[in-house]
């Protein structure tokens, strides 16, 4: 029989807001909203539990939050501080296991089946991690302990804040049967409505549907729901690996000479793509590399390192065109072109001049790190 895994999901409680309350005594016990200005088109990133009592929640427009609680403290996010704390927490996780999968700045899955301390019970590991976090950062967290990711995540949400909940293989079914349908992983508003129309309101109802019924309604996802209702989730905890470079390449539909004007157009498109990918991962880079493959399958790469990091398509293009100029033009027909940006750094955006949409993107991206 396969070994039963020990998975922990750790989720910090009202992370950004708790840090603000920690760092500023007058905010303790008060409704605190971290996010955009209430008199602009900003949104709530996180709010304290005191603010949640007014029905305020993340992604709500700050102006709406203001109407619900005009006395709340509105705080502009300090992402540099949140990231620092996030790193501190991650270092605590690594004392226990290298199998750490961060989901956002304040949330991670840990596989502690074979933990570094040789502790037998995952619940004990979770308790120790929570204690370490509180002692070293002054912040509370909630932990869910189970034998897979889905159940561990559900468990961490169970009695927040400062919660610790275990779901064992023995009590999983009872737990799942009473679980509201919208709490199941991957069930959004649309799917929830569909299921409720079918009279499916909780895990027990979901378990009454056959695999054929589920697949005819939800295609491939039907199988996932079938498994979740039975507490089956085989997804592994995937440890985070830092991105070392961002690149893109294109195999040409017909082979070209380096002198053909089309080459520059294709490279320009590739630069555009690389730039988008950099923006998406919120990175900037200092080293630009051009890769060329010829029809005899020989390959060359040429790099340039800049003093200042870049991410804009036009800047990458300028560097790439310079690299092209210095290539020998008579090496043969080209069959593939690629551009890579490496030597990456975090893109420190000026948050005071961005729109609501960029702001939302920024929150989304920075929580991915
Ligand atoms: Mg959280």
UniProtKB/TrEMBL annotation:
SUPFAM superfamilies: DNA/RNA polymerases, Lesion bypass DNA polymerase (Y-family), little finger domain. One of its GO terms (cellular component) is cytosol. Its EC number is 2.7.7.7. It catalyses: DNA(n) + a 2'-deoxyribonucleoside 5'-triphosphate = DNA(n+1) + diphosphate. InterPro entries: DNA/RNA_pol_sf, DNA_pol_Y-fam_lit_finger_sf, DNA_pol_Y-fam_little_finger, DNA_polymerase-Y, DNApol_IV, PolY_HhH_motif, Rev_trsase/Diguanyl_cyclase, UmuC. The keyword Nucleotide-binding does not apply. The active site is at 107. Transmembrane segments: none annotated. Its cofactor is Mg(2+). GO terms for biological process: DNA repair; DNA-templated DNA replication; error-prone translesion synthesis; SOS response. Keywords: Cytoplasm, DNA damage, DNA repair, DNA replication, DNA-binding, DNA-directed DNA polymerase, Magnesium, Metal-binding, Mutator protein, Nucleotidyltransferase, Transferase. It comes from the Bacteria. Binds 2 magnesium ions per subunit. Mg(2+) binds at residues 11, 106. GO terms for molecular function: damaged DNA binding; DNA-directed DNA polymerase activity; magnesium ion binding. It is found in: Cytoplasm. Residues 7-188 form the UmuC domain. The record marks 16 as: Substrate discrimination. It is an enzyme of class 2 (transferase). Belongs to the DNA polymerase type-Y family. Monomer. Poorly processive, error-prone DNA polymerase involved in untargeted mutagenesis. Copies undamaged DNA at stalled replication forks, which arise in vivo from mismatched or misaligned primer ends. These misaligned primers can be extended by PolIV. Exhibits no 3'-5' exonuclease (proofreading) activity. May be involved in translesional synthesis, in conjunction with the beta clamp from PolIII. This is DNA polymerase IV. It comes from Romboutsia ilealis.
């Amino acid at each position: 029989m396969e070994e039963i895994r020990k998975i922990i999901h750790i989720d910090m409680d009202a992370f950004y807001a708790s840090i603000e309350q920690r760092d500023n005594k007058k905010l303790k016990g008060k409704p605190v909203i971290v996010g955009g200005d209430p008199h602009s088109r900003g949104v709530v990133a996180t709010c304290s539990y005191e603010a949640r009592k007014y029905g305020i929640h993340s992604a709500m427009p700050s102006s709406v939050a203001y109407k619900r609680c005009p006395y709340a403290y509105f705080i502009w996010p300090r992402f540099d501080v949140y990231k620092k704390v996030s790193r501190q927490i991650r270092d605590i996780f690594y004392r226990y296991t290298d199998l750490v999968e961060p989901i956002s700045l304040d949330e991670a899955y840990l596989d502690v089946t074979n933990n570094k301390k040789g502790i037998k019970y995952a619940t004990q590991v979770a308790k120790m991690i929570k204690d370490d976090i509180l002692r070293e950062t002054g912040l509370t967290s909630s932990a869910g302990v189970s034998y897979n990711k889905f159940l561990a995540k559900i468990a961490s949400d169970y009695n927040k804040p400062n919660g610790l909940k275990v779901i064992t293989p023995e009590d999983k079914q009872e737990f799942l049967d009473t679980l509201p349908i919208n709490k199941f992983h991957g069930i959004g508003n649309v799917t929830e409505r569909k299921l409720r129309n079918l009279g499916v309101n909780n895990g027990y109802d979901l378990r009454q549907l056959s695999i054929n019924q589920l697949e005819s309604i939800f295609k491939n996802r039907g199988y996932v729901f079938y498994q979740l209702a039975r507490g089956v989730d085989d997804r592994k905890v995937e440890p985070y690996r830092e991105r070392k470079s961002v690149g893109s390449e294109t195999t040409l539909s017909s082979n070209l000479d380096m002198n053909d004007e089309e080459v520059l157009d294709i490279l320009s498109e590739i630069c555009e793509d690389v730039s988008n990918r950099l923006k998406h991962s919120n990175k900037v880079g200092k080293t630009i590399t051009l890769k060329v493959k010829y029809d005899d399958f020989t390959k060359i790469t040429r790099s340039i390192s800049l003093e200042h990091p870049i991410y804009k398509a036009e800047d990458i293009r300028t560097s790439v065109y310079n690299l092209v100029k210095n290539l020998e033009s008579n090496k043969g027909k080209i069959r593939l072109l690629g551009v890579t940006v490496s030597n990456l750094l975090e893109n420190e955006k000026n948050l005071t001049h961005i729109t609501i949409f960029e702001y939302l993107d920024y929150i989304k991206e920075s929580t991915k790190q």
